[in-house]
Amino acid sequence: MQVGHLLIIPLFLLLLGHSMGQLKRTPIARQVNQNKTHANVKAEKIVLAAKYFLVDKQASQRTQMVANGFNLEYTIRVCIGTPPQCFNLQFDTGSSDLWVPSSKCASTNEACQEHNKYNSSASSSYVENGSGFSLQYGSGSLSGFLSTDTVNIDGMVIENQTFVEAVEEPGLAFVDTTFDGIVGMGFGSISGGVATPFDNIIKQGLVERAVFSVNLRRDGTSQSGGEVIWGGIDPSIYRGCINYVPVSMPAYWQFTANSVKVRDILLCNGCQAIADTGTSLIVVPLRAYIAINIVLNATDNGEGEAFVDCSRLSRLPNVNLNIGGSTYTLAPKDYIYELQADNNQTLCLSGFSYLEGNLLWILGDIFLGKVYTVFDVGQERIGFAKLKRNSTYRRYPHTYTYANAREPSRYGIDYSFYGHEYPRYFT
Ligand SMILES: *[C@@H]1O[C@H](CO)[C@@H](O)[C@H](O)[C@H]1NC(C)=O
Ligand SMILES: *[C@@H]1O[C@H](CO)[C@@H](O)[C@H](O)[C@H]1NC(C)=O
Ligand SMILES: *[C@@H]1O[C@H](CO)[C@@H](O)[C@H](O)[C@H]1NC(C)=O
Ligand SMILES: *[C@@H]1O[C@H](CO)[C@@H](O)[C@H](O)[C@H]1NC(C)=O
Ligand SMILES: *[C@@H]1O[C@H](CO)[C@@H](O)[C@H](O)[C@H]1NC(C)=O
Ligand SMILES: *[C@@H]1O[C@H](CO)[C@@H](O)[C@H](O)[C@H]1NC(C)=O
Ligand SMILES: *[C@@H]1O[C@H](CO)[C@@H](O)[C@H](O)[C@H]1NC(C)=O
After folding, report:
1. What is the pTM of this model?
2. How far away, in angstroms, is 344 Cα from ligand 5 center?
3. Which of 187, 210, 390, 399 is least enclosed by beta carbons within 10 angstroms?
4. Considering every ligand atom, which ligand is closest to the CA of 344?
């Protein structure tokens, strides 16, 4: 397959670039001003556990700790109804639901009250549905009901889009987030049968091809965090070719990665990976987590997060991911988060994290911010390409404030789960 594609794709893109004239682009905002804490990393993991249907035994403890927005940064503007009611939604390839806070939420729902809310009575295009919706998040749940209305994404007018009006939001996890809700860009099979916005975009002929492509900027700002290109590919963003791999099953954007290597250690040899713009981290299976911590000399805190000695950053190795025959390199500056402790000490958190029960490589923005990603719904494949050198600029990814003094490890890693059954969508 490889040789043929390598030759054909660039020529094809050249033609495409000419024939399509202009591609529809929507700016992605990167929210960089939120108060980032280690607690936010934990909150991010609660959300991940819910998204991937993992049993998160620590969720109730984590939820108590979380009072700030979490580290999910990339958003697009989406308007619902007539006249339009607009929302700032997390752009999430790791889920498939569209949800916004409902004006029918309780006054005690703090997360709802502090965000934009959808009011169906104020929309002439609203169609009632009313079916219930619930997604379990550790100690709380995201729940509400379905409604149908016109959805406008940057001028693409989607008719009869069914979405979730969220009435309850889990614990404090969604309080103080910079986004109001989430727009899921995964496949419809994980949205309980509701056609996703992109399904409807395709069905209603709003794009020429059933593809969207994403360039997340790690040096992004709230004005410019990257862009999503609807219906095609922009050759000016990447260099070389786009390497496609088939989607393992159309649910998440899941595919087989050839290998992940650090020094001479093979952390993955044909493993299942997921491209998830809705997390900043790279969440890895337990065996890989243990191995990479040994190579990085990183110390696990007992909660699936590992810290390295900041003075050793320059001596840390690159991590090489091989996908579809092309190797993508993550340098320490890409995968280490610097946390600011209260005492002004800097702590260095490894971006390779562990979540109990997870058997997949969940590749978040640490990886996706380094590549141009093509989400090809029509051909059920995902493509990655290297960014043009001028299209990205990387510093240390984030400066967090580290809220809590380092607690002694309270939870040993539970090795016993390893080899347990896959969560329901992965079988
Ligand atoms: C919803 O919109 C209707 C019609 O504009 C308005 O009367 C009502 O007060 C709004 N409800 C809320 C909770 O904002
Ligand atoms: C609500 O939406 C779901 C998903 O699109 C659909 O299956 C169901 O028939 C709808 N229910 C009503 C009452 O419209
Ligand atoms: C949206 O629903 C209305 C009423 O059911 C229908 O008349 C219209 O054709 C639908 N539009 C699309 C694009 O499906
Ligand atoms: C590994 O980390 C430990 C604790 O941070 C430190 O004492 C030790 O010197 C480190 N080893 C290497 C090879 O850097
Ligand atoms: C932390 O560093 C800043 C600037 O470097 C300084 O102004 C502040 O006093 C320091 N705080 C503590 C607690 O050391
Ligand atoms: C990168 O440089 C090329 C050529 O100078 C230019 O056409 C392109 O727009 C630049 N891309 C970005 C993202 O700045
Ligand atoms: C950021 O979070 C820390 C720890 O929770 C808190 O002490 C501080 O007041 C917060 N700062 C802002 C600007 O919200």
Report:
1. 0.82
2. 6
3. 390
4. 5
